[in-house]
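hey so u asked for the seq, here:
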Amino acid sequence: MGQGVFVLWATFTIAFFVLYLLPSDPAALIAAGGGGEVDQIDPALLEELRAQHGLDRPVIVQYGDALWQAVRGDFGASYLSGAPATSLVAQALPETLKLTGVALALAVAGGALLAVASVFPRARALRQALSALPPLGVALPTFFVGLLLLQWLSFRVPVFPAIGNEGAISLVLPAVTLAVPAGAQLAQVLSRSLRGTLGEPYVETAWAKGAGRGRVFLAHALRNAAIPAFTVLGIMVGGLLGGAVVTETVFSRVGLGRLTVQSVNQQDVPVVLAIVVFSALVFVVVTLVVDLVYPLLDPRIESSGITESRRSTAVAA
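ran it, structure tokens below
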């Protein structure tokens, strides 16, 4: 938990100073309403806006005030709309949660099936062909997968809508776009772990007792092989939130990703900070849950396994 608090503070601090170092002037963007010509704005109005939003104070004072408010759960009001930043995040969150939830389910199901399929067949050529798919899926950029799906399943064959948030059918293409790299990453780790587990003595003992292939895979090998994949699964949750930024932009969906892009473009600091800290909080909570569940999967790793999990997730962060 102490490490999680440090991650949240570091995330907030880095995001704050990166936004402060951007070349544009937030006061000018506020006066222009997020667009238009900023060169023709009255300098007196700019000074008034800087004083109103505290932008005329030293940066360390701005940082201290923003951090103290964030600790209390208040990230301030949006520079452009005037609405509380937390309420804007809360309004955009449900659509993103639906998208990431469906994508996570597809990634887990597809990744697990592909991992087992790449190890289970007796034919070596088939195993090698299936084993080549996860690295390919990991290497494909999210926006490229989304554009391919749009081209084939929306424009050439109009099966699914290309843009929008209308109905469950509009979730299909964005969710698949998010699920492909995530599922490929899970399959890559799980298949490698399965191959190692199948050589363990207890698996060889099960073979010697006459257990069938299905029983050996499901009852003996898969449970222990799933432990490293479980760590990857926790990391994937944070990765899906990050991928939603690209996916929601490609498919013109209203959600947290699209709000992030708009807020960064308009240098709406309170909203960006709220989004960044929320994403970090999700990652910290999921990582903590993974650490706590590890001993339930295998009591032998109650000490060493949790340490390794934290090391892995820290590297991923």
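The domain at 85-316 is CATH 1.10.3720.10 (MetI-like fold). Residues 309-317 have pLDDT under 50 and may be disordered.
lmk if thats what u needed
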